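Quarterly update from the structural biology core.
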Amino acid sequence: DAKDLDVPHNVPFVALGTALLWFGWFGFNGGSALASSSTAVAAAVNSEIAGSVALFLWLAIEWIRNGRPGLVGLCVGAVAGLATVTPLAGFVQPWAAFVTGICATLVCYACCELRKKLGFDDALDVWGVHGMGGFVGTVLLGILADPQECSEATKAPKYCVNAGTVVRSGEQLGKQLAAAVLCAVYSFFVTLALLKVMNAIIPLRPDDESVRGSLDKAEHGEEAYTPTKAYTQELPKMHGISVDA
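Predicted structure, tokenized:
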């Protein structure tokens, strides 16, 4: 059922997975500097800012639209901010990470809603959050990176995050956009080809009967969870009538 595509298997597991991802993202973005340097610190700080801003805004949007906040939406928003800031975490100032968190929320939320409307089966919002978030972050680097005065490492001011590397300019924006489009097109066609080959060997989609029944039973021959019965308690008879709770 298309309405069940966004129902998580286990909400606490979603929260736990998000927490583990967020913790690991500090090593992923900060560790990309390959040294315990100011650039590594900036990348970690920017990751925290973008993730927090996107988390808050996603939560606010769901609260306004649905009348209440949701834990799953909170987690998706955090991942959207982290995924979007990744391409530029080590090249921008904290204020730029804040802007990135806002852009991440607006773009990724819109993409997720579009995916729902089109009925695409994207269980983890890989396209709407990771794909489009990464695309937007890659392009934003050409706009939000440090200014031209940071282009020369020897003459750059002390505030520059990663002097002598990437600075914002129209030329850099064009390069980032071209690279993002090229990677998106390449990934699409290579993934499609691989899936076609895999599907020819082992069908990727289970048959309808297995989907309606138990995929665990059909694919693995056993259930992931022990079936449980509703708890009932037999109460004392009252006036000759047995009442079950």
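The mean pLDDT is 88.
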